[in-house]
Design goal:
mainly alpha; Helix Hairpins; 93 residues; elongated
């Protein structure tokens, strides 16, 4: 498994809000999984990151605000990957 380096302190959280860049490659990068990741790997990455970025885990208001933006991005990435995987399954049938 690759090492994980969360973008929590380095990146601008506004880039992770809905309506930002949302191409397929970004989903993989944000979830830190390879393009060939299975549904189980994607779900595991989502669960791990949701525990890290959940706003209720942060007391400091500045960190909480960053966590809210990152958590929103995480939800968009996970939902986007689920849609893409559903379309791929349908096209294989």
């Amino acid at each position: 498994m690759t090492s994980f380096s969360p973008p929590f302190d380095d990146d601008d959280p506004s880039q992770y809000e809905e309506g930002g860049q949302s191409d397929d490659l970004e989903y993989y990068n944000f979830l830190n999984v390879p393009r060939a990741a299975s549904e189980a790997e994607i779900n595991a990455a989502y669960k791990r990151l949701s525990r890290l970025y959940h706003p209720d885990k942060h007391v400091d208001q500045e960190k909480k605000k960053k966590a809210e933006a990152l958590f929103a991005k995480l939800k968009v990435a996970h939902e986007g990957k689920q849609v893409i995987m559903s379309i791929a399954k349908v096209s294989l049938i």
